[in-house]
Design brief:
The chain has 369 residues and is of the alpha+beta class. It has two domains: 22-234, Jelly Rolls (Sandwich), CATH 2.60.120; 258-368, OmpA-like domain (60s Ribosomal Protein L30, Chain: A, 2-Layer Sandwich), CATH 3.30.1330.60. The chain is built from five helices and 17 strands. It has helices at 50-56, 79-82, 277-290, 308-328, 353-359, and strands at residues 2-5, 60-61, 69-71, 97-103, 116-119, 129-138, 144-145, 148-153, 171-172, 184-191, 198-203, 211-214, 223-234, 258-261, 295-301, 336-340, 361-368. It has a five-stranded antiparallel beta sheet. Strand 15 (295-301), helix 4 and strand 16 (336-340) form a beta-alpha-beta unit.
Length: 369
């Protein structure tokens, strides 16, 4: 571990505080719900697991069992945590913001590594230059950490333990921000090297390898940061992908044939579509319009996390959600059937995040032409 102790005689301000709202970027933000203002469920209580956070924060999840915190006017912080300053912070914009612990695994802090994860509205394009920014505020009296970082994944990370994720980040904060309750802008530029779909923020180093600054007038030995207004945007010139990721392009429909649609994404444990799902839903709609006499069965599948009966019911509801969407777009209901098999028909292992992400899928079976 690399650390220094702060002194009341030395003040080092490396980035300027943003007291007022930053000027709106003219480029499209690829991060849905960037300020944590939209909710899948009513915010209430405190967050004791990653699933608690994912249940409430629309489009956002925790990639591990550890729980980020979501702050809204409705959330009451437990007295034991409010006593050390948790929640004593105004949002940068709107009424909500998130918070994560990024250091302190050897100091007795529960959930000593927390991360936030979100599915981008479109995947990264290799060779494209991107700009990233996030508003940060440091919890006063907690440990300051330089290693807050940005990383991208090809698939949904869904670890069942409170693990530290050891990754090679794309961008790192690499500076200490003042502990004065003000918001500071963390920003950077990078060029994508692969078509990743998920953005993650957190500390991807161990405590031993983290660069930290200990508070001078506090016994707190964990690091905690608030997050708000996460943005990711393309920087011109814009690269137009020359490929398509639609499995329907090369699919020759025949009765009994099945094609897998792995990019009809749903919100965590729900039947609501993620914004990114509309791309493949539109592809399916156009496919059915191209074959006006075709009848299909929409089949839902889940991973094996949770109870088998619940997963089976969830898969049925999700396939019905696809059918209902197609009907709203003009496809005759009599052409559409739906079913679900839960976790009974995996196509990959359920022991890894990547395998579980493959098992969560929608299949289209051609019934007749």
């Amino acid at each position: 571990m690399k650390f220094i102790r702060s002194s009341v005689f030395l003040v080092s301000v490396i980035i300027f505080p943003f007291i007022t709202h930053a000027q709106k970027n003219q480029e499209e933000n690829l991060v849905p719900n960037p300020g944590f203002e939209e909710f899948s469920d009513k915010p209430k209580g405190w967050y004791y697991s990653g699933r608690d956070f994912a249940r409430v924060a629309m489009y956002w999840t925790s990639p591990t069992a550890a729980s980020p915190d979501l702050y809204t006017p409705e959330v009451e912080v437990p007295k034991s945590w409010s006593a050390v300053g948790f929640g004593d912070q105004r949002p940068y914009k709107g009424e909500a913001f998130a918070g994560i612990t990024v250091y302190g695994c050897g100091k007795g802090k529960p959930h000593c590594r927390e991360y936030v994860q979100v599915l981008l509205t479109e995947g990264l394009v290799p060779g494209q230059k991107y700009g990233f920014s996030c508003m940060l505020s440091h919890l006063p009296k907690s440990v300051s950490v330089k290693n807050l970082a940005l990383w991208f994944s090809d698939y949904d990370i869904d670890e069942g333990a409170h693990n530290t994720l050891y990754k090679d980040p794309v961008l790192t904060l690499n500076r200490y921000i003042p502990s004065d309750k003000k918001w500071y802008k963390w920003s950077g530029v990078f060029v994508a090297d692969k078509p990743s779909s998920y953005l993650l923020i957190g500390n991807f180093r161990s405590d031993h390898d983290s660069e930290v600054k200990l508070p001078s007038r506090s016994e707190l030995r964990f690091g905690y940061y608030y997050l708000d207004e996460v943005t990711l945007y393309k920087i011109p010139p814009i690269i137009v992908p020359t490929y398509t990721d639609s499995p329907l392009d090369d699919f020759v429909p025949k009765p009994g044939e099945i094609v897998t649609l792995s990019r009809i994404y749903f919100e965590h444990d729900r039947t609501d579509f993620m914004p990114r799902a509309l791309i493949q839903l539109d592809q399916l709609l156009n496919f059915l319009l191209k074959h006006p006499g075709m009848h299909i069965e929409v089949i839902g599948h889940t991973d094996n996390v949770g109870y088998a009966n619940y997963n089976q019911q969830l898969s049925v509801r999700r396939s019905a959600a696809v059918v209902n969407w197609l009907v709203r777009e003009g496809i005759e209901r009599e052409r559409l059937h739906s079913s679900g098999f839960g976790s009974d028909q995996p196509i990959s292992t359920n022991y890894t995040s990547k395998g579980r992400s493959l098992n969560r899928r929608v299949e289209i079976k051609v019934l007749s032409l």
